[in-house]
Amino acid sequence: MIQPPELEELLAAAVPFAVDLRVPFRGLSVRDGLLLKGPSGWGEFAPFDDYDDSRAARWLEAAIEAAWGQWPAPRRESIEVNAIVPAVDSRQAGALAREAIWEFGCRTIKVKVGAGLAEDEARVVAIRDALDGAGIDTGIRLDANAAWSLDQALAAMRRLSAYGIEFVEQPCADLDDVARVRSQIDVAVAVDEGIRLADAPESVSLDGVADYAVCKPMTLGGAAATLRVAESIGVPVVISGSLDTGVGLSTSIAAAAALEDLPLASGLGTGTLLATDLTDPPLRPRDGLLPARRMAPDLQALVQASDAIDPDRAAWWRKRLRSAYATISQTADREVEG
Fold this sequence. Notes:
Blueprint: H1 7-13, E1 14-25, E2 28-38, E3 41-45, H2 53-68, E4 78-80, E5 83-85, H3 90-102, E6 109-112, H4 117-133, E7 140-143, H5 150-160, E8 165-169, H6 175-184, E9 188-191, H7 193-196, E10 212-215, H8 217-220, H9 223-232, E11 237-239, H10 246-258, E12 289-291, H11 299-308, H12 311-337
Parallel strand pairs: 5-6, 6-7, 7-8, 8-9, 9-10, 10-11
Antiparallel strand pairs: 1-2, 2-3, 4-12
């Protein structure tokens, strides 16, 4: 881990921001957080509100790596990405899928499922129609966010597997149940929460459990930490974002660019969910690709996003940074003592 700067240096370098979303996602209509400016560039600290201090600390480590450290050397100049469709109604799901295909060139669509099988199937059918209209035979990823029981997962996949599913992501919370789902369906299975919510992600092995590991660098401590997880996880890795701004996406792009093996599109097309971004132009796919380069905020966009955040919320974010920093310091102290 990179030696973190002093807390006061971090606080002095922190710029609060808030950007609007085009459609609600994860219960949010606004994405906010802090940007950190360091000698290497810009980092983003924006852990979701339900992340505890230990998990928020990994996000801060990722921001410090981006702003004060160095990313692993890239192996590729661009990254193929998938688009994402939230748990919206089927009509809007179809519209978002067509936009992703025809405007942004994405050939893979990840869709949120798990709220109800009838609604899930309607959403998947709308996306299937959009992909068929573009001559794309497969291209759908299902993300249940661990919402299903084992029986629900099996019932859902009996219905949904007919629509050209590339993989189903985290169908159940328990990894033993994930392995049982995998053994009983003809669709590949991926794990997300089982990695990013683990106390020690680098100790997780998915060999015999899943076909793919979905790794979100902001939740794992940065690009270098993600590569360490990829080395130990036992299955191919799909890099994914965390509803980041264009600045925050740089960390995930850096991880995807540095991986030796990147067999599938990365889940980094989330810029299409933002109504505004901190970069100009917004970081959205072109021909289904994102460039593998560091992104910096546009000054005017950052000023507008900083003005948009409520002062109390900005103070809350600074307090959260302090708590995450204290967690990093305590962990470092324990490692020295050990």
